[in-house]
Amino acid sequence: MSRGTERVAGMSVFDPQCVSREVLEHATGRWGGLTLAALVDGPLRFAEVRRQVTGVSDRMLWQTLQRLEDDGLVTRTPHPTVARRVDYELTALGRPIAERVCDLIDAIYDQLPGIVAHQRASAAAAVAASTDGGEPASG
Known about the structure:
Elements: H1 3-6, H2 19-28, H3 30-39, E1 44-45, H4 46-52, H5 58-70, E2 74-79, E3 85-90, H6 94-132
Antiparallel strand pairs: 1-3, 2-3
Helix pairs in contact: 2-3, 3-6
Organism: Streptomyces vulcanius
Protein name: Winged helix-turn-helix transcriptional regulator
InterPro entries: HTH_HxlR, WH-like_DNA-bd_sf, WH_DNA-bd_sf
């Protein structure tokens, strides 16, 4: 059993009914992980988060922030100004998770040269196999 499943008695991220699985999905899903990483250096307005998390639609970012807020990982602070302003910030619950997401991103960056080389070799093997009609070599 992994250390993650041993920490909380009666809970397992491997159990589809456990709330931890839902939170894991919110925190590490495509937009959730990027949103948490964007907020690690401090509070941001919605538009600032959107600029950092390029490619996300306004609707998807709003839903992501809402889920993270519902999980207690992010707090939303509206300001009483004429031009509507809302800041998003990591909570005490969200900060350690966001920092670990950033650690994962750093690990990916560290391994990226090898990953790219492997992807290129796999693509070349697939092309070679398709031109000679055979199965790609396992490796």
